[in-house]
Amino acid sequence: MSIFQTMLIEKPRIPIKQVVLFGLFPSFLKVWIYRLRGYKIGRRVSIGFLSVISARQVEVGHDTKLGFLTIIRGTQVKLGSYINIGSMVFLDTPYLQIGDGSRINEQVFVGGLQFPDSKLTLGRNCQIMQMSFINPARSITVGDDTGIGGHCLIFGHTSWLSQFEGYPVDFQPIEIGRSVSLAWRVFVLPGTKIGDGSVVGANSVVSGTVPPRCLSLGFPARVVAKEPEFPRKLGDEDKVQILKNIVKAMIEYFSQSGISCEEFEGDLNFRIRRTRGLSFTRKSWRMRIIYRNTLKSDLPEPRDKIDILLSLGKIPEEERAILKQDGVMWIEICRKEQSRYANSLGDEVSLFLKRYGVRTIRV
Hints:
Blueprint: H1 16-23, H2 27-36, E1 40-41, E2 46-47, E3 52-54, E4 57-60, E5 65-66, E6 71-73, E7 76-79, E8 84-85, E9 90-92, E10 95-98, E11 103-104, E12 109-110, E13 119-122, E14 127-128, E15 133-135, E16 140-142, E17 147-148, E18 153-155, E19 157-158, E20 170-171, E21 174-176, E22 181-182, E23 187-188, E24 193-194, E25 199-200, E26 205-206, E27 209-210, E28 214-218, E29 221-226, H3 236-256, E30 259-264, E31 267-276, E32 279-290, E33 308-311, H4 317-326, E34 329-332, E35 337-338, H5 344-353, E36 361-362
Parallel strand pairs: 1-4, 2-5, 3-6, 4-7, 5-8, 6-9, 7-10, 8-11, 9-12, 10-13, 11-14, 12-15, 13-16, 14-17, 15-18, 16-21, 17-22, 18-23, 21-24, 22-25, 23-26, 24-27, 25-28, 32-33, 33-34, 35-36
Antiparallel strand pairs: 19-20, 28-29, 30-31, 31-32, 34-35
């Protein structure tokens, strides 16, 4: 009998068969085949070249995109809408759930040692930066609007040396709350619980419980600042001034990128004139900025021809409905939301706001 026997439980690292059978097909054909297999695939879903999804149950929302050579494998996979997963990402866990509007950058690896209940749950509007490694040996839960920096290590287990020789072996779930920020190269150990609104500094090692709304850093990470010093309390006037500074910086950035801006009757008019080869692009947009909760009197009339409404305060549902009817894209900062209807400049505004921690979700 050969000593090189086939293992009873196969552990393929890459589903080569799936990549060969489906990965070479164009996106629209892969989506069609997956639907025939019983996968629930939304509208305008893009699956990149050599990218595949392999699971018993799959649900993918609208406008979700997978980059080049991205592999998703598991038992149950549920991806929301407007999700963007970069190139060469490998997500391998029995249960995977990613909320609307989340983003996973290039070369993120999720996998490793697993149990039947291994699970990764990523909330809405989250982001995992490139080259991070996540091992959901037990469940890992990440709350909405949380950012995980590049080269982070999140491990649900600690095991190598024999437990019979007195060395620690640990398999525990990890809970990361809402609106948490993990800087680059953070190492999260099994059993860690990080409270909502906390920030963990770069190169920190996190173990145990981190309280909500505090700053932790070090090896091991310790709380160095907490309320009311961190995060700083802001008044209404402070927020107005911050938005004015952001708008000023945005105008300068757009101008350097070939988008001119001028003020007209309290609104901002943006114009682009661009020549590429034999093609000529000429387009204009008009944006209105409101530094308070939006009132009906603030809403643009059709004759105003407003394309984008940027509001610091809340936009009530009734006003949102009116804006939708008039085809006006809106962005609300206080609840980090934006309309599903969008335009080219509005998307650039939304992207610029991310520089200041305002990541809006389409609703």
